[in-house]
Every structure is written in structure tokens, then in C-alpha cells.
């Protein structure tokens, strides 16, 4: 016998079109049990219409703050791929050296799409946080064939409104997967010998010029100074700018 929470979770996944064997694997139940629950129609009212799982299709409330952060994660190191039966799989690649990032990515996904299970796949040096739904492309219309830097990336009007309101969360999401807070050491030759100076700075790296522009536009709106370090890197090194980012980003953990 399985508890009601497990049954409803399995039904929610199945209602999104995920195959029975995949639902069984995610929920840790027998495939036959999933088929039985579907036949019996054992589900709560909110699960009757699978479209209600998507804020864009049905108007379900969306946590804008968490979404803005997850949007940054997706643009930074996320990917959406087609699975079986028109189901989409959202993945966020997280370095194993930052277990806190793994937990935050999983939490953000579960808040934005609460009826979808969040899984983790271990790869060499990283953990892939993933979730299945037919509606990930609704929430991330930047999805498309090929890598992000090979196609145009632009936010839709409704996304711009969210990012405008929750800009700090968006910046944090972009820095977490592909950025860092580090200590820079500079050597200055002096008459009495070399002197070393240390100061903290943030880096954000992305191959896509469009995504870098979204990042720098967000920094500009927060009045945080930045400079283009090289073709792929944005550097934030001024003391006041670093202090501002420390207020809501800080070192990864």
C-alpha cells in the first residue's frame, strides 16, 4: 500500500503525459500500480485537468521571485530536451563542489512546477537536476534547437516584467551556475620590493552575447558597475559594486 501523497504525485506526473514506467521509476513504485491508479481515476480535483499545472496555459499562480532565479539558472547552465510522448525535460547542471547550488536549483524547480517531480542524475564532477513536464517550453520560450549561443536569446514581455521586479534574483541565478566570487591578487613592483594587493571580485561567464547583455542590462538597472573582461567574461570588481552583489549573491557553497 502506498500513501496518498505518493499516489497523487504519480497521477500528477502521469497526467502530464510521462510514460508509466518513467513515473514508476521516479516515484519508486511498481508500474502496475501506476496503471491501476490511472484506471481507478484516483486523483484530487486539481489534477483532473493537466493544463492547470502550467501558469502560462491556465493562469495558475506563479512565484515570480523564484521564477526569476530559475530563469537565470536556465539561461546560465540549463537545457530543455524532448523526451517521449511530447514530454520535455528541464535540466540544470550543477558542479558537485557546490552542494548548496544543487539544493537551491531543486527547490526552485519544485516551487515553479510543484506537480512535477525533481530528480538528480550523477555525472562526473556534476549533478544534473532535472524535471519532466509538457509545459517547460511555456515557461522558458527561449528553448530551441542547438546551443543557446547559436541562436537569438530574448525575453518575452511577461518575462521582462518579472525580471524588472525581481532583478536581484535574476542576477543571482545567472551568477550561480556560470559565475564566481573570487579573490584577485595583483603584484605591484616597488623600489623596496614587490607588493601584493588583494581584492574580491565577481565573474560571470557565458558564450552567448545575448545572455551577457541580459546580465549587464540587469546590473545597469541595479546601478552596479561592471566591465567586459574579455569576449566571454563580465567582471564586477569595484568595491561598491562587489558589496552590492554580496548583499544578495555572495560566495557559492
Helices and strands in order:
Blueprint: H1 4-15, H2 20-27, H3 31-40, H4 55-58, H5 64-77, E1 78-82, E2 88-95, H6 99-112, E3 118-123, E4 126-133, H7 136-139, H8 157-165, H9 167-178, E5 179-188, E6 195-205, H10 209-221, E7 227-228, E8 233-236, H11 239-248
Antiparallel strand pairs: 1-2, 2-4, 3-4, 5-6, 6-8, 7-8
Helix pairs in contact: 1-2, 2-3, 5-6, 5-8, 5-9, 8-9, 9-10
CATH class of the largest domain: Alpha Beta
> What count of structural domains?
3
Q: How are the strands of the biggest sheet laid out side by side? A: 1-2-4-3
Number of helices: 11
Q: What is the 3D form?
A: elongated
Can you name the CATH architecture of the largest domain? Answer: Roll
What portion of the residues fall into strands of 2 or more residues? 15-25%
Mean pLDDT: 87
Percentage of residues assigned to helices: 40-55%
Main sheet: strands, sense, barrel: 4 strands, antiparallel
- Encode the helix/strand succession as letters: HHHHHEEHEEHHHEEHEEH
How is the CATH topology of the largest domain named? Endonuclease I-creI
Helix/strand-derived class?
Answer: alpha+beta
**Integer-rounded radius of gyration:** 21 Å
What are the low-pLDDT stretches, counting only 5+ consecutive residues below 50?
Answer: 42-51
Textual characterization of the structure:
With 253 residues, the protein is α+β, with helices and mostly antiparallel strands. The protein folds into three domains: 4-48; 57-148, Endonuclease I-creI (Roll); 173-248, Homing endonucleases (Endonuclease I-creI, Roll), CATH 3.10.28. The chain is 43% helix and 21% strand. The chain is built from eleven helices and eight strands. The chain has helices at 4-15, 20-27, 31-40, 55-58, 64-77, 99-112, 136-139, 157-165, 167-178, 209-221, 239-248, and strands spanning 78-82, 88-95, 118-123, 126-133, 179-188, 195-205, 227-228, 233-236. α1 (4-15) runs antiparallel to α2 (20-27) and α8 (157-165) packs across α9 (167-178). The longest helix has 14 residues, at 64-77. Mean pLDDT is 87; it is low at 42-51.
